[in-house]
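Write out the bound-state structure for FE2/S2 (inorganic) cluster.
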Amino acid sequence: MGGTNPYIEKPEVALPKKAYKVSFHRPDGPPIIFEVDPSKLPFGPTGLPGSILDIALNGGAAIDLEHACGGVCACSTCHVKVVKGLESCNEPTDDELDQLEEAPDLSLNSRLGCQCVPNGTMDIEIEIPAWNKNLVKEGH
Ligand code: FES
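---
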């Protein structure tokens, strides 16, 4: 499922112009490191183009991050923590912050994966919270 949510504020996003790396740290295995090629964005229909969710699900990282609402900022199941490179990501909208409040284990670097779009000026590191269990597709 994918698409956009007409009822929310549209986030201001700068897409990357050069390749950068995303490291996904998961609770049950070694990190998965994926290089984002900006010429291939969006990778799929789910989440904002170039978002952490887009990269995780469709970019080849093979991480099945939860996304109960289909990536339209209407749940909080795609909650991740940006442990490095948060400054290269778009600012969260009020709608994103409202949804995030529903997520367990919040911290200052918490974001919704479907709304968080890095601009590619630096490599970033993402921590997937342990409670977000639907993690890695078979093969990893
Ligand atoms: S998938 Fe529902 S808010 Fe991101």
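---
The chain is about 10% helix and 15% strand.
The longest strand covers residues 20-25.
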